[in-house]
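Chain A, query sequence.
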Amino acid sequence: MALRTIAIINQKGGCGKTTTAINLAGVFASLGQRVLLVDLDPQSHCAAGLAIPEHRIDLHIGDAMLTPDDAPLDLSRLVWRVSRGLDLAPSTMRLAGLEAARGGLATLADRDERLQRAVARIATDEITGERRYDWCIVDCPPTIGLLTFNALRAASEALIPVETSFFSLKGASKQVGTIRTLARRLGGSTPHRLLATMHDPDSPLARTLLTELGERFADRLVPVVIRLDPKLREATSLGQPIVEHAPDARGAEDYGRLASWLLDNPPGRTLAAGLLDSIASDEPLDGEPAPALPHALQPVGALAPSIRPDDTDAPPTADAVVTRAAEMAARVRHLLQRSEKLQSRLTDDEQVISASSRFDAQATSEDGWRPGPNVIEGGVRFVMPGAPGLHVFVAGDFNGWSASATPLRYDPIRRVYSAYLPMTPGRRLYRVVVNGVWRADPNNPDVEENPFGDRNSVLVVRPVAPGSLATPA
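Chain A, predicted structure.
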C-alpha cells in the first residue's frame, strides 16, 4: 500500500480538527499501522495534546520544508516518537512566519510542493529506499495560505470535520468552496470527505442538523459520527490519544470505526469522480463572494462553487426560503430560552452559591494574590497555589500561546506560583502549563471550548483605577 496522506482541514474553529488528527493517528497506530502525524498549525496543538513541551522542540516541520533536497535532514531532531507506531513532526509558533514575504517559503519556485517533498524524505529511508510509514496525517492551519496549499498538494485525500451545530451546514459549504478554489490552482481534484464531529445524539437540534448534513452532501459524508465524549478532553489533558487513555470510551469507539472505514474505503473507490467534480461551478457560494486567496495563490477567475439549500436541481422558491428562515429563527429563540433558564437555575442554585463561597473562603485574602488571575493596575497577576519544584507557565493570546514565554515563579512565603503581565483592557484567552501538561486554569471558573476539543480559560480585563484592585469578570 502506498503512503496515504490525509489532510484534516477546516478554517472554522471548534470543529474537532486537531482532536481528529491526534486520535485518528493514535487508532491507526494501535492497529499496527505506521503513522506520521504532521502538525502544520503554528499553534502547535498536536505537540501540546501529546505532552511534548514546545520549548523542547528543536526543529519543526517548517524547517524540513525549507531544507534543500540535497541538504541532510536530521530526523533525530525533527521527528518525535509518541508511541509505538506513531511519530510526530511538530510545529511551533515560528511556523507562522514561513508564509511571510521574507519567511523563505513564498520566494521558492516550488513553494507549493515543499511539504510533499519533506514528507517524502521523512517517510523514506534514504539508504534502503524503504518506506517508514503507512499513513501521514496532516493537521492543517485554520487559515488559507501557503501552508494549507502545501497540505492539499501533499494529500491523497482530505477530511473536513464538521461540528453538528447551528452553523455547521453553512460552514461546511464554505469550506468545500475554499478547497475547490485551492484545488483549481492545483490543476486537479483531491477527494474530499466530510466527517460529523462533536455530535450530541441526545440533542434534537444536533440530530436534525446531522440529517440535513447527510442530505446536503449525500455520499460525500463519512458514515461515521464522532460523538461528544468528556474522555476526549481527559486524554488531551494527559497528552494521550483516546485509544490509550480510555480504549473503552465511546470516543475511542468512534475513531476506531472511522479508521476501519478509511482502511476499507480508499479515496479512488468511494469518490472516484472527486467531490469537487460533483459541485456546480462558477457560481458564488450562497450568494457570497468566493473566499479570497493569498496573492501568490490567486487563480485566474476562480470562484467558489454553488451549494444549494436543497438537493433539487431547481433553486428554492421564495416561500421555501422564508419557511426555512422562520424555522431556523425559531430554533435560535428556543436555544436562547434554554440558555436563559439554565442561567437562572445556576444563579438560584444553593449548591452553586455554596461552592462559590467555599472557593472565596479558600482563596488567600491578600489583595492581588487570590488564586487565579488578579486584575490590578496596569495588568494581571496570575497566581497558582502549589508545592515547590513544579514548572508552571501561562500561555495565551497575549504571548502567542507560548508554553515557555511566561513562567510563574515560586513564592515560598505565600506558597504560590505567580507572574505579573502588563495587559490592556479586553477579553483574553489562556491556559496554564504545569510540567508540560496544558490545562484550563483550575482557579478560574470561566472557560470556553477551544478548537482542540478542550477548554480555554477566559479573562476579561477591565480598566482599573490607580491604586485599586478588580476581580476579573
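Residues 269-325, 352-365, 467-471 have pLDDT under 50 and may be disordered. DSSP finds 14 helices and 18 strands in the chain.
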